[in-house]
Structure formats: structure tokens, C-alpha cells
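Below is a concrete protein record.
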Amino acid sequence: MFIRNITAEGSVESVKTFNEPEVKEQVKRGDLKFVKIADGSNERMKNVPFKLTNVVTGESHIVVTDDNGQFKTENKWNKHSYKTNENDKALADGKIDASKLNSEAGVWFGKDQAGNEAPVNDKLGALPYGKYTLDELECETNEDKVMLTGIEVSVTRDDTTVNMGTLTNDQKPPQLKTNASEKTTKDNVGVHGKMTIVDKVTYKNLIKGKEYTVKGTLMDKATGQPIMVNGNKVLATKTFKAEKSKGEVELEYTLDAKDLEGKTTVVFEDLYKDGKLVVSHNDLEDEDQTVYIPKVRTTAKSAATNSHQGEASKEEKIVDKVMYNNLVIGKEYEVKGKLMNKATNKPILIDGKEVTASKKFVAEQKDGFVELEFTYDSSKLKNGETTVVFEDLYHNGIKVATHSDINDEDQSVHYPKIGTTLTGDKGNKTVIAANNTKLVDTVKYENLVPGKEYTMKGTMMVKDKNDPLVENGKPVEAVGKFVPTTPSGTTKIEFTVDTTNLKGKELVAFEVLYNSKGEEVTNHKDINDKGQTVKVLDKPNGPKTGDNSNILVYGLILVIAAGGITYIVRRNKKNKK
């Protein structure tokens, strides 16, 4: 400051002075410290990050505990100038990268409440005067704990360290999450028969180093009750030590699911510690816990008849409607079928090959149907076979359901069969040689299609030669057309034969049945079948030489006749007297 006094005119008085330099007052700076331990176990928690924020200036930095769970901002602990605020790099997108944390890095807050920026100074406290908040950040070390947030602390004294004491936080409640799948299909599609369900149990917030036991039960989603197999619940259990606060264990449930077709099972899991229930995951609606066991049923019909009565044809087509239940929508499945012979319970072979069909599809709904077509030469089935369609359902190459009941009528298609009985026109099995002998063949048929026209063609055979009987250079044959009204019944055809030269011979009728297309449906050609056989005699049968079976009868008749005559004669003599 310079001061000059103005005196009388003509004189000047000067005063010399100097400006005293201004010195800014040093802002108060201090430090803080704390120890982080686990609640309950008092375990020192290392490498735990916190966000320390100056409430007024908004400046914040990441700080971290050391191997003993301690943290200090003091320069004598970690120099402020050593890798200053390096831990800030560990926080990105709200998450901590633990690999970038360094408990030896220095801390320095430069801004004060006046907005001044102070350079790093190892001789001063790290924190300028003011209020701060401390927020714990989640990392692997504390992920099972409830985060400490909004802890307030004030730095008000210069060169003083505020001891925040011991910081602990509550243990988070344990959590369970499960994911169930069938071992062979590797997803939530179950299988028919013996299967193993693998339940991957993921846990969180367990106490590291403690022993736990997880127990599970398979539940019926429809009833909410345990699945029962042979009167027993399906259970699994596993005891383990939690190496970390989070992890996973697997439980396996092995069962015979042959009686569980169409059922949906949900896995319930309970976690125990020291014999006490800690947490459960029992949600009937949780898809991740759910396994679906499929069911298939089939209805097979001949395409020609739209019924279970097949038509013998070179291109017979069986359409099998495969109805499925409890499939997983959006999953791909394949249905495979083959034709079985009911009598032998073995596959039908046409020209040495099985008759099969298959179809792949993606389930658009839980319950539905697909159709398979089997085309084959059924005219080669000559013995009245019943064809049964067996169907298997596959997923991921694994058979998950089957319908293979050889006695299931819905799966069956029946093919024609005939049997014949040859007699004389009076129903007798012997005929007298004559030039105009009538023979009647009664044909019993099975599994014909009502309303369709058939032709029965018979050929007369000479048994001892096993050749057709020939008259006028042609085989002796008879033909008859008929339209059955029921699948099973009888029809007759008549032969007129000259048997004068066939005395003592046996004649056998061979029959062939044709459909309206002229295709052979079936036949009955058995030269040794007595039912198809008639014997030609020279004359009516009488007592055979050496046969005494009727002599007593004839003698008795003569005695009775003689007695009658004697009685009449005596009576006449008496009357004359």
C-alpha cells in the first residue's frame, strides 16, 4: 500500500512503505483407516474394493484392503505418490476387475472445497477437509455378503487419521437354482424305460469352507405330489464342502419310467447345513427344473378299406396315425415304425426285408399326431396274417417313447385267410363212382372286406398223383363270385365230375381267392388236408370181410323173426281147434 498526504501548496511530503506478500492458509488434510472382516467368522477379507467419495467436490477413487483386510490412506502405509489412484482402473462399466487391484497403490484427493487442485504431497494427509462417503463394491471376495454403502466419515482435523474401526456386513441369504436334464438326450426330454435325470444345482452365498447337504425329490407336476415308482419316492442326496461362496453340484435320479408315459416331473431341491434347512428351490412352474416324458399311441388302418381289414394287394398301403403327448414345443423328433407279424411277434419280411417307415417333425404343440405310410406287397401274406404296427419316438437320436403292443387291436390290420371242406352233394365224405358226380366245396373265409367283390376259383386234384384232375384235356375247375357282408363267413362252389374211372381214388379241392382286380388274395392248397378230401367208392359200403361186428345183430334179427313166425303158426292151429 502507498500513502501520500497532500499538504499546503508548493510542498510535498512523501512516505515510503512496502507490500507484505500474501501467504495462502494451508487446507486441513487428514487420513482414515479401517479393517474389513467377515461377519460370524471374523475372517480378514482381503482385496475388497471400496469407492471413497468427497461429498462436496464429487471426487472419488477406488481403494482396496490388503491381505490382512486393512486399509489406510496414510503416507507411511502407502506413499501417496506411488502408483497414485491406480485402482481407479479396476472399475469399468460398474464392475470391478480384481486382477487390476493393487493394495499398495497410493491414494490422493487433490480438490478442496474451494475448488483448488493440490498436487500430490507425501508430507500431507491424503484427504482434504470435508465429508466423505464409503461404498463397498462387489467382487469375488465379498460376493456372498450384503454390500456396505453410504458410510459417512468427516475429515476435520489436520494431520489426523480417522479410525473407522472394523467393518462387517451381513451374509447374503443362500440361493439355489437348478437345471434338470435327461442324461442321454442331454435336455429336458425324458425317455421311456430306464432313465437318469441329472440336476445341476447352482448355489450362491454359501459360507466358504462349510459343509452342506443338498437333497432332492422328483415331483409330479400335475398333482404336486412326489413321483412314485414301485411305491417309493425318487430321491437323491449329496454332501459337499463349499470351496467358494458360489458353485455347483450335480445330483442324479435313476428310475424306470415305463409307467410314467406322458408325465411331467419337476425336481425339488433343499439345502441343509448342520442338519437345518437353509434354503429350498421348489417351483412347479420352473422350466429349468422340468423334464417331460413323452407318450405315443397309434391307430393303423388299410388305406384301401379305411379299416383294420387289410386288402391283399401288390401295393397295399397302411396308414398309421401316431398320436403323441407331452412333447416339448420347438424340439425336433423322429418317429420310426415297422410292421410285425402278430403270430410270430417278429418283423414281417417281404423279399427278405423289413417293412419300415419314418418321419421327422418339429413339435408345434404339446399334444398332436403325425401319420406314417407303409406301402408293401401284402399279397404275399397267404396265411391270414395279422399285421401289427410298432412305433418308436426318437429325440437327439435316443428312443424316448414306444408303442409296441403285439395285442393292441388299434395297431393291427388283418389279412384274409380261407379254409375249405369238400363233400358230396349230401354232405358225405364218400361218393359212388358216376359220370355226373356233384361235389360241393364250402369255403370258410376270414378278414375279407365287406362290400367288395371276390372270386373263388377251385381246382380238383387227384391226391395220389398230386395233379389236377383232367377231363377233355382240361383241368376240372369251378368258379364263384361273391360279395361278403361281414369280414368272416362262408361261400360255396360246386364241381361236376366224371368219377367212373376214379374208383378208390381220393379227390382234393384246391382253392384260390382273388380280389376285384384279379390279384390273388390267398389260397388253400394242402393235398393232405382231410377237410378238402372226398373218396370215390365203387358201391356203397357194406360189412367188410373178416368184420364180425354185425353178425350178432343179423343173428338176433333172424331169431326174432323166427320166433314171430312160430308164434303165428301156433296161434292159427289153436284157432282151428
Q: What stands out?
A: Residues 543-559, 564-577 have pLDDT under 50 and may be disordered.
